[in-house]
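Fold this sequence, please.
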Amino acid sequence: GPGPAVGTEDTKTYYLANAAGTWHKSTNGMSTSATTSVLAAAQAFMPAATLNGRLYYVSTANTVRVFDGVQDSLFFTPPAATSTMGWIFVADGTLYAGIQTGTTTGYIVELDKDGRMTQIGAAFADNYLPSLLIFHQNDLFVLAIKAASQARILRIRRDAATTTTAWTTDYTTTGFTSVSAGAIASYRGLFYFGVQPAVGDTAIVYERS
């Protein structure tokens, strides 16, 4: 995807990986689908990203793979054996990936068309790990989560960042028992983010002034 369902002039092909990492393919808006073995097994609950007609996803082998509709290939392998691939994102026409080492070190890398890596900024402070990323008003914004307890919004100016440039903390949540997921969006010039807290806590959507 994305694309409309059957009956339109520009029906698209959808690929969807289930919790077991098995890919399903559909050409009628997921009304029906069939498993496909063309793609490698996907990491469960890791979103894929599309850029320039190609599908990028995290595999169960802890690598990023790319699928062009015909061929599936290895695209990127984390630099250290102890590193774990996080989510991948497309922002402002560029492919980014979140990487974590153990449970305490998280950072963002930019991947070029050949899978070469450039680290964006220093590793996150205070044991926060990357969850989501978008491009907003010339900055990269990341929603990071700390040991499933609190969420933090970090930002950096992409064109001025080196591997030692610290990310700026924009906001840190307080008062949640735990945070399992969230969402971020740039809409009509404003930045929003929300978090999914534990049962019993109140979910909140924040607007950046």
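The chain is about 0% helix and 50% strand. The radius of gyration is 18 Å.
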